[in-house]
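Appendix B, record 7
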Amino acid sequence: MLLARFLEVYQHATELYGLIHSRYITTPEGMAIMRERYLAARFGNCPRVMCEKQNVLPIGISEDLKIARVKIYCPRCKDIYSPKKKSADADGAFFGTTFPFLLLMVRTFLSRLTPTLSHTLNGNSLCLRYLGSSWRVTRWKKSRNKLRRGRNSRIKVC
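Structure tokens (predicted):
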């Protein structure tokens, strides 16, 4: 009887701690700690090959307890996956549904940006840039590009 009561109190204390954790990680101190963990890849990497081992963030599917386990969110492909690490046992409510988005909005420099790719085709300079969440193709005419970079310069401005 005493052991059953102890296990029940322990379970409730664990749930309370998890809910406090979900609120703490949205504070400035919590965000700083989670940022360091994100940069150190403590939550793992994206399983997709095209994401090139992008660091992931934990996310909960529901704010309610015992609905779903914690998942991982990739900021590059913007998809949610099941984690392969030991943290898969944690409840998703311990991180909340908005944590990764809030962290990425506050710390916009965290999202991994792909370098700019440029190519010259038929005298026009084409530029492919990754800006935040989408690829954009920019075109400059050869004459306009010459004005930007100078006539004798061989540096491409993209």
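Remarks on this record: The first strand starts at residue 57 and ends at 59. The CA atoms of residues 149 and 156 lie 7 Å apart.
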